[in-house]
């Protein structure tokens, strides 16, 4: 669905990746209208039955019985960082069963709203990724240097669960091409908010809201938020 000179099809795998893990992408409605979203690229890399996308803000058992069943499955994981989350590497070592992973797609505030206002998402085991890589999605601003796009989260998580590092490289390939094309056609590299604050480059007015201002102070002082 892009002009031919910036077509991303040559950067996708020739055949969908063979994976045993099934992804459920819970997408905030605002993401559907974004031009440079990453979930379509992720879906193009995987078989349709291994990447299911549900769009909405509120998910209950009556309207989403399949999702409710998935959330109650003991092999289901939800990728959402926090004090209650276990590092995914530790979970992958202990489990050999095919997994189902839920990933929330949206801004950090949108993802937080979806996670805390839907009780179904507190049923699966909560996992997180170690902050070991920096985002390559340089055409959108991230809160911190180690925040990843939905596609990047999925790529890293699948490579861990499937015990196959090449999966990560394959899924990241179209994202790298997307960013390269955009930069060639006038886009600018977006440093994280953390980078801008620490280097005195943040040129927007500081928030008046005390909670938001406190979050910025934590970013500058390297305190995990």
UniProtKB/TrEMBL annotation:
Its Enzyme Commission number(s) read 2.5.1.25
Q: Name one GO molecular function term.
A: tRNA-uridine aminocarboxypropyltransferase activity
| Top-tier EC class | transferase
**Which Pfam families is this protein grouped with?**
DTW
Q: Which residues form the DTW domain?
A: 1-187
Q: Name one GO biological process term.
A: tRNA processing
SMART domains (alphabetical): DTW
Q: Which domain of life is it from?
A: Eukaryota
Keywords, ordered alphabetically: S-adenosyl-L-methionine, Transferase, tRNA processing
User: Is S-adenosyl-L-methionine found in the keyword set?
Assistant: yes
Keyword S-adenosyl-L-methionine included in the entry's annotation:
yes
**Catalyzed reactions:** a uridine in tRNA + S-adenosyl-L-methionine = a 3-[(3S)-3-amino-3-carboxypropyl]uridine in tRNA + S-methyl-5'-thioadenosine + H(+)
Please give the PANTHER family that the UniProt record associates with this protein: TRNA-URIDINE AMINOCARBOXYPROPYLTRANSFERASE 2
Similarity comment: Belongs to the TDD superfamily. DTWD2 family.
Descriptive protein name? tRNA-uridine aminocarboxypropyltransferase
In the UniProt record, what gene is named as encoding this protein? Dtwd2
